């Protein structure tokens, strides 16, 4: 009995520690000699994404006999870990659909854009997005989808609170939120939780002259304009004009409550209609307006872009197949179909016209030229965004805005 | 036991000089005999090496590397990742919180399990149903359990707030998981909830090994219920409690899904334990090396904690 106990303890320890220690998994990939089979890792935007790619790949393989595309669908929440593992274990996919690329470009892992798409495709990209796809002056990434943010407001709640027009200035936002609160709803839905705090914050900061970097491209996260922005959001929170605890609220919750008609204003994107509002209440009376700014004179919008990146593999043997596949995707009807299906904005000139027909989308397409982007071309951005997601929300709860921004600035400077 | 016995006999036979036999076995044969146990031990040694030791070596190696945010290795970092980690202002609060979390969850779990084990051991109608009911939290996925609790605690549509409001305990809904202390207590409750089945069944098994005669003798001697429990049941349960606590310590220390699903370690780092902190270092701060350093520290902490526990509970007396 006693000796058994030793055995059991030893075995228990071994198993428990062993299991906890092996956190690192690896996935298998097969290498084919001809370079005609490529692996495409695509992000899951919603339930329709996989069906779209399955069909596209089928069409591609039918038109290009001998070429094969292996599709792997990956959820956004695990994408980062997946990609790191691929690179660590030298099993990179041939084509990756993601929201950042600059660290791959810096580490020499991906092709330049001109190497993997035809000149026609290259010339079709909208210049705004090409700028965001460059690393040190060279275009590496292929713009894939884009998105913009505008202010959504509930017309019924506005009417009930006696507000006629959408707010243009920050003071108006606060005053309107106060009125909406007075009529029993939540004034402004502020998602500053770890999911997308950086997007919500930047949507406000850019309309106060703030941002992530200064004119010379150096990190300027604790600049006065940003501190003021955070103080303003903190004031909204402390005055009870937002939903409780913005620091733990994700977008999903805000949009759901907006769709239920319980929130007066929130910042949303093209996806908000199909993804949230129509699911809950197709008849919701809402309007869309430019993002409010401190002064009320200029209204910037947050631009978001996801990209495709092509990884170097086997000394460039995969280049031809990758190029064939990418050129196939960037045909006008294929890209337009994807954008419509997923409610995103175009990154190419040719697909742009197709979407402007819908008045809902037109507002976002029209806002794109005034859009500002997060500095995704800086390889350190992912780490900075990570720090922002983790810590920024605490500035509207217990912490001092200036202190929180100072800390993020430090992280940014350390990361490069 | 029986294998150990035959092995012992075999070893004795191999090493004992045999006066009657000549010629002596050649060196090759002797080597063969010496290596023979490897045939039996080999597979398990290989398995332990592959599944336990190799990941540990990888983990330590990774903690000494500089790894780019893309995942490419940039070279050695020496002990740099460790100094970064110890200098991080969130590190010590996280470690202390983890120790509190482990101690709280394990102590409460074991105490409740002692009572539950006793109940499950008693004879009463419907015992089988109760035993099954206790297994349920074990059979349910921890992640699902945590998510369900997260929604039950939601300030907007959660069941807990509804019930407390209807009972008049609260005047307005509380956002339980947004306040670090409350969130921590609720998560500890969930951790206790999912640890109970295993622990109470280990204790039940322990209770069933206590021979009935001992209790009979105690009854004859006139010992009361409490006295019987503290002087007979509890001491005889020591091995079971020991095993249950150690396995729980390790499990709770490394528990990721409960915290990740319920608060994500937030707001900020206010409800992070070493495990969720480790994850954030790798995937939010993009520092795989520092995350591995945290993993090594975590590993060392568990080892030290378990050794201290064994020492405090005078483990050797148990196994002599």
From TrEMBL, chain A:
Gene3D superfamilies recorded: Periplasmic binding protein-like II (3.40.190.10)
Pfam families: SBP_bac_1
Keywords noted in UniProt: Signal
Segment forming the signal sequence: 1-21
Keyword Heme: no
PANTHER family reported for this sequence: ABC TRANSPORTER SUBSTRATE-BINDING PROTEIN (PTHR43649:SF30), ARABINOSE-BINDING PROTEIN-RELATED (PTHR43649)
Name of the protein described by the UniProt record: Maltose-binding periplasmic protein
TrEMBL record, chain B:
Originating gene: ugpA_1
Chief place of localization: membrane
Membrane topology: Multi-pass membrane protein
Annotated transmembrane regions: 34-57, 99-120, 132-152, 186-207, 288-310
CDD domains: TM_PBP2
Region spans: Disordered: 1-27
Organism: Actinomadura macrotermitis
Family membership noted in the UniProt record: Belongs to the binding-protein-dependent transport system permease family.
Localization terms from the record: Cell membrane
Keywords, sorted A to Z: Cell membrane, Membrane, Transmembrane, Transmembrane helix, Transport
InterPro entries: ABC_transporter_permease, MetI-like, MetI-like_sf
Record flagged with keyword Membrane: yes
Name by which UniProt lists this protein: sn-glycerol-3-phosphate transport system permease protein UgpA
Boundaries of every ABC transmembrane type-1 domain copy: 95-309
Gene3D superfamilies: MetI-like
Keyword Lipid metabolism tagged: no
Cellular component annotations (GO), alphabetically ordered: plasma membrane
Residue ranges, compositional bias (Low complexity): 8-19
Gene Ontology annotations of biological process type: transmembrane transport
